[in-house]
């Protein structure tokens, strides 16, 4: 049994959040028998990763030795060596020569005077011999944390042994602090030179915002606003220890910071980062306080704020490591964001207000001046509130809605109760800015706070709308809001239009009823037109147009034109639920890919300019979809990954992002990752009660299964899509383009009759709507059906026609799939020898598309053909004639003696698909086992 240590046993690899790459690299190195040196700044998570790895690899080691040094004990010689070898001294001493044993016992027990100078060689050899003696019984794992505090004597002895272990099964797992300074880098190099020659250095860097959020949730600090998590990430610099301490301080604080106020910095972190402040003069500290209060402090700004000796004082601070040079210009940059936050939190409130007062006149930017004026002012002040509202409007125009929301809340705080506009009206404007910025949780909380006291119908309905908008795809969770919103709206057409527009979304998302959603949207558009509310009318018309497009309604183009008529609201025009988005969807479904790309690219550029976070997430996904249809799989993969990253960061549209990323991975990335993402998309859609995206997610899952070679699983997922879309009234086959995948999967599972039914129903709708690319894809699927029936000539004609039409429409990946199917058809033609060269055109097209999973399928098919499947026995010329192509391939490989797993690998399908195919073969041939197939190959009648 390995010696383990109790505290390591409590660590699991799933706790190492955000360290998958580093953890994987270290794990791979240890698995190969190598050593690992983890390094990074204080608090970055080295000890957590080290203990987690140690707990995992202790199970395979015979002996685990551990030491963890501290700064206060680093002056004690041989202390780390005693930690490592003290408990095993009795076991190894008998294997040591007398001189080595005496020197080691003296060093570890202190019963005799031993020093490196006097017993240097004996001690060095003793440590090496001790490790070899332990390794003779089984693998040894040496775990050493905080190498920078190792006493010099122990460090020298351990390094001597490590460099000479050779093939001895001793692995070192160590961690050392590195801050990135020149002195620190030199120290790190020294530790690396003292490690075994095969040591892999793994640096741990800062966490992303999403990883910090997951870390905080995992430790119980959940429910924080995304804006707060953003502030924690920025202040901590992605350092997990700092982030957790800031999260703890927030949890213990009686009240959350108000807009513009800094995060509470606990005393523990202040002491950690501000110890060097004691070496600064009082004037220099005040200069740094002004710098910490400013957004982008420069020496010129500090002088304008009254700090006359700013240059000299900042040079002094830089020499102490408090400031770092900024390569991008004159802006002063703190060595770590936490230094700025701790310095600001440490200052008394009057000094902070004085710093903001000085900056309110010194700053050149009107937004900054207004913010500083607010933070320098206590109580309500109509003039300050008005300046803040103007600054919020300016931030909004600049495309900084998050800043606008923060300024709007500051304005509300300084607005008198009887002011015009009132404080709650300004809060609601801030909530709407927060939604634009992707900070739905902040918007929801602000709106619900307003609802606790608002009595005016306009304010109440506006607040209800913010609550509904903040729910996103989980609109079903706020179902109880709608009756209250309708009651507050009364008979006011302006307010009723807002409520019915959201009711349209409820009908679509919660109930999956496109017809009802269309009716609600049309009603909302009429109410808004009567009230003269053009923005609401445009949104309602855009919704109506999109519903009609998906339903295959003949009025869709006319509704789109109505939604595009002037006058337009610029913010609605570029919104992801606006007319531009509806027109994009119609263009894609109408096979006008070039126009669709131009449209969505312009929309993406505009929403980025305006800082519309949620719309940016959606438009990146739309652009990825367009590139995927065009056969630009690499570009689609990049865009879908970017969209999903933004969605996860903002917590919006994650299900839709995972769905599109799954399709992109299946086309140009990793099929296993595609399955993982598609399952996530299904799980999120089901969890949100989102009927709209559930069918899209299932279509992505079915496609991923098909690409991975599991036709049976693809059929299960895609049959659900068929049922859901039929129930929702979706008739346009260009919406998800899953019908061809379902038909192909059905052919592969031996159900050509159902496949033909799917094709005929979809073709009728595609002909009615003029969906040429869908018709071509259906032709490809029908060719597979005809080939399964033995109608080779008709199948070739269908595929040839499909290939030509898809090439003309610019659907590159679908064209390549048609060519691949044609190559397989030629190769499988009865009575003809396989022709691997016929796959060259398919490989060329997939390579042009960067469709790597499909390219691997071509290579697998070529390999199967090159191996030459066993011929059908002459005695049984018709024995396999009634089988489908996949069934014949599987049967032929069984005749060769291949196992199910080998067949799956050669045909690029799953083992389950092979098993299901064999079951059909047995049924069709009237046999019961693989042995009977082999008997057929030998020309004997099965028993």
Automatic annotation (TrEMBL):
GO biological process: regulation of DNA-templated transcription
GO molecular function, one term: DNA binding
Record Gene3D superfamilies: P-loop containing nucleotide triphosphate hydrolases, Tetratricopeptide repeat domain, Winged helix-like DNA-binding domain superfamily/Winged helix DNA-binding domain
Keywords, sorted A to Z: ATP-binding, Nucleotide-binding
Keyword Zinc on entry: no
Nucleotide-binding found in the keyword field: yes
Domain HTH luxR-type: 876-941
Entry's Gene Ontology cellular component terms: cytoplasm
Protein name stated in the entry: Transcriptional regulator
Organism: Streptomyces coelicolor (strain ATCC BAA-471 / A3(2) / M145)
């Amino acid at each position: 049994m390995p010696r383990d240590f109790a505290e390591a046993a409590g660590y699991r690899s799933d706790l190492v959040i955000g360290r998958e790459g580093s953890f994987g690299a270290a794990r791979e190195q240890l698995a190969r028998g190598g050593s690992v040196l983890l390094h990074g700044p204080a608090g970055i998570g080295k000890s957590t990763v080290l203990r987690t790895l140690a707990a995992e690899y202790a199970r395979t080691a015979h002996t685990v030795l551990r030491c963890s040094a501290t700064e206060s004990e680093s002056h004690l010689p041989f202390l780390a060596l005693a930690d490592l070898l003290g408990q095993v001294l009795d076991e190894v001493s008998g294997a040591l020569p007398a001189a080595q044993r005496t020197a080691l016992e003296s060093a570890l027990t202190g019963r005799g005077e031993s020093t490196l100078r006097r017993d240097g060689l004996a001690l060095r050899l003793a440590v090496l011999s001790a490790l070899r003696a332990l390794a003779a019984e089984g693998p040894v794992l040496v775990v050493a944390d905080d190498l920078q505090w190792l006493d010099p004597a122990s460090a020298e002895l351990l390094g001597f042994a490590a460099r000479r272990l050779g093939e001895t099964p001793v692995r070192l797992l160590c961690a050392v602090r590195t801050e990135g300074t020149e002195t620190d880098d030199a120290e790190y190099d020294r530790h690396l030179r003292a490690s075994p020659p095969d040591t892999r250095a793994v640096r741990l860097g800062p966490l992303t915002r999403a990883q910090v959020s997951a870390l905080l949730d995992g430790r119980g600090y959940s429910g924080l606003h995304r804006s707060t998590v953003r502030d924690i990430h920025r202040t901590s610099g992605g350092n997990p220890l700092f982030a957790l301490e800031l999260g703890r301080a927030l949890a213990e604080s009686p009240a959350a910071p108000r807009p513009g106020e800094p995060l509470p910095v606990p005393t523990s972190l202040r002491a950690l980062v501000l110890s060097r402040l004691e070496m600064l003069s009082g004037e220099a500290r005040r200069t740094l306080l002004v710098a910490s209060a400013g957004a982008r402090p420069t020496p010129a700004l500090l002088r304008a704020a009254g700090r006359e000796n700013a240059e000299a004082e900042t040079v002094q601070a830089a020499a102490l490591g408090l400031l770092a040079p900024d390569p991008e210009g004159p802006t002063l940059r703190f060595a770590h964001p936490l230094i700025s936050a701790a310095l600001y939190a440490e200052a008394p409130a009057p000094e902070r207000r004085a710093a903001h007062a000085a900056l309110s006149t010194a700053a050149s930017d009107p937004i900054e001046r207004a913010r500083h004026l607010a933070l320098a002012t206590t109580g309500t002040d109509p003039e300050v509130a008005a300046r803040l509202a103007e600054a919020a409007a300016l931030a909004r125009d600049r495309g900084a809605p998050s800043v606008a929301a923060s300024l709007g809340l500051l304005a509300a705080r300084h607005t008198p109760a009887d002011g015009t506009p009132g404080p709650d009206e300004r809060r609601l404007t801030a909530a709407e800015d927060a939604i634009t910025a992707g900070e739905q949780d902040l918007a929801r909380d602000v709106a619900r706070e307003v609802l606790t006291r608002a009595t005016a119908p306009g304010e109440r309905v506006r607040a209800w709308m913010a609550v509904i908008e903040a729910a996103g795809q989980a609109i079903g969770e706020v179902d109880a809001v709608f009756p209250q919103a309708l009651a507050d709206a009364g008979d006011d057409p302006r307010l009723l239009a807002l409520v019915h527009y959201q009711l349209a979304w409820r009908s679509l998302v919660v109930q999956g009823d496109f017809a009802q959603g269309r009716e609600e949207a049309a009603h909302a558009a009429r109410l808004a037109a009567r009230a003269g509310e053009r923005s609401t009318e445009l949104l309602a018309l855009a919704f109506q147009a999109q519903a009609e497009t998906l339903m295959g309604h003949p009025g869709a183009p006319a509704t789109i034109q109505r939604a595009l008529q002037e006058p337009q609201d610029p913010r609605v025009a570029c919104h992801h639920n606006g007319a531009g988005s509806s027109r994009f969807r119609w263009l894609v479904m109408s096979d006008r890919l070039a126009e669709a790309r131009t449209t969505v690219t312009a929309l993406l550029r505009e929403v980025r300019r305006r800082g519309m976070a949620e719309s940016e997430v959606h438009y990146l996904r739309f652009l990825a979809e367009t590139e995927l249809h065009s056969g630009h799989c690499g570009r689609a993969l990049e865009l879908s990954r970017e969209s999903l990253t933004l969605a996860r960061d903002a917590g919006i549209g994650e299900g839709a992002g995972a769905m599109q990323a799954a399709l992109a991975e299946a086309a140009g990335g990793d099929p296993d990752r595609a399955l993982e993402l598609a399952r996530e998309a299904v799980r999120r859609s089901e969890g949100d009660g989102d009927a709209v995206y559930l069918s899209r997610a299932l279509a992505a899952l079915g496609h991923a299964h098909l690409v991975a070679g599991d036709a049976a699983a693809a059929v299960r997922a895609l049959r659900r899509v068929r049922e859901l879309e039929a129930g929702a009234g979706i008739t346009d086959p260009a919406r998800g383009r899953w019908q061809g995948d379902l038909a192909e999967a059905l052919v592969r599972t031996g159900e050509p009759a159902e496949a033909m039914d799917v094709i005929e129903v979809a073709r009728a709708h595609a002909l009615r709507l003029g969906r040429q690319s869908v018709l071509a894809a259906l032709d490809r699927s029908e060719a597979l059906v005809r080939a399964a029936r033995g109608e080779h000539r008709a199948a070739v004609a269908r595929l040839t026609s499909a290939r030509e039409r898809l090439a003309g429409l610019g659907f590159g990946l679908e064209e390549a799939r048609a060519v691949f199917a044609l190559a397989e058809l030629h190769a499988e033609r009865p009575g003809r020898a396989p022709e691997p060269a016929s796959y060259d055109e398919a490989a060329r097209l997939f390579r042009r598309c960067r469709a790597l999973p499909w390219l691997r399928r071509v290579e697998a098919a070529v390999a199967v053909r090159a191996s030459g499947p066993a011929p059908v026995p002459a005695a049984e010329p018709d024995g396999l004639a009634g089988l489908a192509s996949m069934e014949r391939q599987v049967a032929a490989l069984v005749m060769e003696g291949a196992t199910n797993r080998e067949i799956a690998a050669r045909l690029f399908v799953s083992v389950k698909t092979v098993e299901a195919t064999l079951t059909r073969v047995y049924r069709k041939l009237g046999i019961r086992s693989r042995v009977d197939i082999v008997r057929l190959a030998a020309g004997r009648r099965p028993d």
